[in-house]
Write a structure and sequence with these properties.
The protein has 379 residues and is α/β, with parallel strands linked by helices. The chain contains 13 helices and twelve strands. Strands 2-8-7-6-5-3-4 form a seven-stranded mixed sheet, sandwiched between helices. It has a three-stranded antiparallel sheet with strand order 9-10-12. A two-stranded parallel sheet has the order 1-11. Helix 1 packs antiparallel against helix 8, helix 2 packs parallel to helix 8 and helix 3 runs parallel beside helix 4. The radius of gyration is 21 Å and the shape is globular.
Length: 379
C-alpha cells in the first residue's frame, strides 16, 4: 500500500472531476468557438465554469484566462506585462525563493534590458518589507511575489504589499499555485492585478490553469493564433478539462479550506511531536506560524535526503526533497540556499505535503515507516 505525501507536487484527481470530464467528453465534444448548436453547448459549459472560478477569488468572469497551467500563467503575467509597460520603466521586484516558472522569465527579461531585483529572505523564508519599500520607485513596473512558497510553505506578506502598491503604477502579480487549495484568496481585498493558479494542485487535471488579469490591464497574447480567451490566449479551449477544474473549485468552499487547514496543522504537529518523542535529530525549515498548512519541510540531520527518499520509496512512502520541477537538478534547492546557505542542511531536507485524501491513519503508518528508516540509516 502506497502512502502518498507529495501533494505539493501534484494531487490525485477527484472522482467527481473525472466523472464530470468523462461526461463532457462523451456528450459535449464541440469547439466552443463554433457557432452551431454543438459549439454553443460547449461555450455554455465554458462560460459556466469560468464564472465558478472567477467567484472563487472575487473576480469578474471576463478577468479569467484559461491557460495550460501555472508555468504559462506566470510566464504570461511577467513577460507580457513587462514588455507592454516598458515605456513606464524597466524595474521589476521579486524574491529569491520564487518558483522556477517565475525566476526563468525574470532571467529572460534581464537579458532584454530589464532591471530585476531579487529580495532576500531570512531563515524563515520571509522578506523584510523595508527592503521592499526601499526598492519600490518610479521606475518599478511590476512586482511578482508568490502567496506561499512551494518548498517550505512560508506565506509572504501579500496583503501588505498590495496596500503599498494601491497607488503605484506597478502591477502586482501573485503566484498562488500552492496557496489556492487551502487559503482564502480575494484579489480585490489584496489589490492583486494578476494571479496564477494550476488545476492539478487541487484535484483537477494537469496541463490546465488560469490567469486572473484585472480588467483594463493590456498585453499581447503570449501564444499567437486565434482570438480565444478574449484575445489573451490563442488555442481551442479544453472544455472537458475546464469543466472538471470548475468542479474541483466548486468543492473548495471557504469552509472546506478552513477544515483542511485545521486538519493539516494537526498532522504537522503530530509529526513533530512524534519525532521529538523518539529523539530524532531534526529541525523545521521555515516556520509553522505563518505557513501553508499542507507543507512541512524538515531537516533530518545526518541523513542524505536522496538516500532517505529511496528507502522510503521502497517501503511504499512517497515524499520529496523539494520542488518536482527541479527533480534531477544537481544544484541544491535555491529556496533553502537563500534561507540558510548550509549545504548539509539543504542536502538533508525533505518535504512532506498533505492532500484532501490524506488520513490520520496514513500519518500514523507513515511515522512508523519514517522512524524505522531513519533508525536503519543512522545505524
Amino acid at each position: 500500500m502506497t502512502i502518498y505525501l507529495d501533494n505539493a507536487a501534484t494531487t490525485p484527481m477527484n472522482k467527481d472531476v473525472i466523472d464530470a470530464m468523462n461526461k463532457q467528453m462523451l456528450d459535449n465534444y464541440g469547439n466552443a468557438s463554433s457557432l452551431h448548436e454543438v459549439g454553443r453547448k460547449a461555450y455554455a459549459q465554458l462560460d459556466k465554469s469560468r464564472q465558478i472560478i472567477a467567484d472563487s477569488i472575487g473576480a469578474k468572469e471576463n478577468e479569467i484566462i484559461f491557460t495550460s497551467g501555472g508555468t504559462e500563467s506566470n510566464n504570461t503575467a511577467i513577460i507580457q506585462t513587462a514588455l507592454e509597460n516598458k515605456n513606464k520603466g524597466n524595474k521589476i521586484i521579486t524574491t529569491s525563493i520564487e518558483h522556477e516558472s517565475v525566476l526563468e522569465p525574470m532571467k529572460w527579461l534581464e537579458k532584454n534590458g530589464f532591471n530585476v531585483v531579487y529580495l532576500p529572505v531570512n531563515e524563515y523564508g520571509q522578506i523584510d518589507l523595508n527592503d521592499f519599500k526601499n526598492e519600490l520607485d518610479s521606475k518599478t513596473i511590476l512586482v511578482s511575489i508568490m502567496y506561499g512558497n512551494n518548498e517550505v510553505g512560508t506565506k509572504l506578506p501579500i496583503k501588505e504589499i498590495g496596500q503599498l502598491l494601491s497607488n503605484h503604477q506597478a502591477l502586482f502579480h501573485v503566484d498562488a499555485v500552492q496557496a489556492y487549495g487551502t487559503e482564502k484568496i480575494d484579489v480585490n481585498e489584496n489589490n492583486i492585478d494578476l494571479l496564477s493558479v494550476s488545476a492539478h494542485k487541487i484535484g483537477g487535471p494537469k496541463q490546465l490553469g488560469f490567469l486572473f488579469c484585472r480588467k483594463g490591464i493590456k498585453f499581447v497574447s503570449l501564444l499567437k493564433g486565434g482570438e480565444q480567451e478574449n484575445k489573451r490566449r490563442a488555442g481551442t479551449e479544453n472544455v472537458p478539462a475546464i469543466v472538471g477544474f470548475s468542479v474541483a473549485v466548486k468543492d473548495l468552499t471557504d469552509d472546506v479550506k478552513k477544515q483542511y487547514r485545521l486538519k493539516f496543522v494537526e498532522y504537522k504537529q503530530k509529526i513533530i511531536n512524534f519525532l521529538r518523542s523518539n529523539n530524532v535529530s531534526f529541525e523545521v525549515n521555515g516556520t509553522l506560524d505563518n505557513s501553508l498548512a499542507h507543507i512541512l519541510n524538515l531537516w533530518i540531520k545526518g541523513i542524505s535526503s536522496d538516500v532517505l527518499l529511496t528507502n522510503l520509496d521502497l517501503a511504499g512512502v512517497e515524499i520529496s526533497a523539494g520542488s518536482a520541477c527541479t527533480a534531477g537538478n544537481l544544484q541544491p534547492s535555491h529556496v533553502l540556499m537563500s534561507m540558510y546557505g548550509n549545504v548539509d542542511r539543504i542536502q538533508q531536507s525533505v518535504r512532506i505535503s498533505f492532500g484532501k485524501q490524506t488520513t490520520n491513519n496514513e500519518i500514523d503508518n507513515f511515522l512508523d515507516v519514517f522512524l524505522e528508516v531513519i533508525n536503519k540509516l543512522k545505524g
